[in-house]
Amino acid sequence: MQINSKLPNVGTTIFSIMSKMANDHGAINLAQGFPDFPVSPQLIDRVHHYMKQGFNQYAPMPGVPVLRKAIADKTERCYGWRPNEDQEITVTCGAIEAINSTISALIHAGDEVIIMDPAYDAYEPIINLQGAKAIGVPLRKTDYSIDWQAVESKITDRTKMIMINSPHNPSGAIISADDLRNLEMLTSGTDIFILSDEVYEHILFDGDLHQSVLRSEELRNRSIVTSSFGKTFHATGWRMGYLVAPTGIMAEVRKVHQYNTFTIHTATQYAIADYLADASNYESVAPMYQQKRDFFLNKMASSKFKPIPAKGTYFQLMDFSAISDTGDVEFSEWMTKEIGVATIPMSVFYQDKQDNKVLRFCFAKDEETLAAAAEKLCAL
Ligand code: GLN
């Protein structure tokens, strides 16, 4: 049979490739972003509790009401504005389903979606699946901040959406209140949607505050915001995310969500609703990761890798140009196989696959894991 591929240039994601390579070669996996420490036993007990209580059938399509209420409470506490829990919140199968359902619902063939470059690898294929085009705007070379003039220069009458991501995967950069004002000015009076990927909203360092687009009335009227309990509660395998968007936009997105995943694991939704009642369960996440980042940087201090400061996420970029002038993909494969530490080569996140000799390290790991990896890396 001839298969007419809808994504002829897409292979397996780099995260699956590097995790397999790490497993095959017994390497320490600092590549794919997932924690290697346990989920809170209290949260696991709640899931178990609700499963034993019989909460094992379909949840309501947008999510169980108690979880949507808990999300509304958290949003109000964090960003000073409360979404309507019936109409403006939908629980999704991880943030990636949220992004998929949103783009499928709102983007037509021939549309243009502005993304930052580098960007998380899933955005462009999802846009392309709609017959639409991802228009990359280069982030600044020095600190991965957004050049709003460059964004403005890419806006055409085909621009239907601007995607932003803060804290930013892979760079760890964050947006500021000024960035929100720039975004307001650029989109005010237009029909441009904003899809804001905020899955690392609870992982910011050194006292910085997360600048959610939900803080701005102007922006939230045109924005779809996605977040992730997988990231916040170190349970990436549970696939628990959610969306916040205005009623009219959300109605369109739910039309897709209902025929995509339909609903999300029922007992886990009830369990997370209980767990969110104690704000310290999400407010303690940033200091925990800051300690890990600092521990890892400290252990790497004597290495030839040069860290690029990260303000959020659980990723740390490192420049390896003082060690090797091989391409980053080749270098990360060599490091996995010969040194025993897997990472992600940064070039995969660029539209033109530019190689700046930078690797992404995930530090969402126990101190023993980070220390063992750093010892190997310092020998290079
Ligand atoms: N978000 C994770 C990362 O950036 C990967 C998720 C996945 O493997 N699809 O590493």
TrEMBL record:
<dbReference type="InterPro" id="IPR015424">
    <property type="entry name" value="PyrdxlP-dep_Trfase"/>
</dbReference>
<dbReference type="InterPro" id="IPR015421">
    <property type="entry name" value="PyrdxlP-dep_Trfase_major"/>
</dbReference>
<keyword id="KW-0808">Transferase</keyword>
<dbReference type="InterPro" id="IPR015422">
    <property type="entry name" value="PyrdxlP-dep_Trfase_small"/>
</dbReference>
<protein>
    <submittedName>
        <fullName>Aminotransferase</fullName>
    </submittedName>
</protein>
<dbReference type="GO" id="GO:0030170">
    <property type="term" value="F:pyridoxal phosphate binding"/>
</dbReference>
<dbReference type="GO" id="GO:0005737">
    <property type="term" value="C:cytoplasm"/>
</dbReference>
<dbReference type="GO" id="GO:0016212">
    <property type="term" value="F:kynurenine-oxoglutarate transaminase activity"/>
</dbReference>
<keyword id="KW-0032">Aminotransferase</keyword>
<feature type="domain" description="Aminotransferase class I/classII large">
    <location>
        <begin position="28"/>
        <end position="377"/>
    </location>
</feature>
<dbReference type="Pfam" id="PF00155">
    <property type="entry name" value="Aminotran_1_2"/>
</dbReference>
<comment type="similarity">
    <text>Belongs to the class-I pyridoxal-phosphate-dependent aminotransferase family.</text>
</comment>
<dbReference type="InterPro" id="IPR004839">
    <property type="entry name" value="Aminotransferase_I/II_large"/>
</dbReference>
<keyword id="KW-0663">Pyridoxal phosphate</keyword>
<dbReference type="InterPro" id="IPR051326">
    <property type="entry name" value="Kynurenine-oxoglutarate_AT"/>
</dbReference>
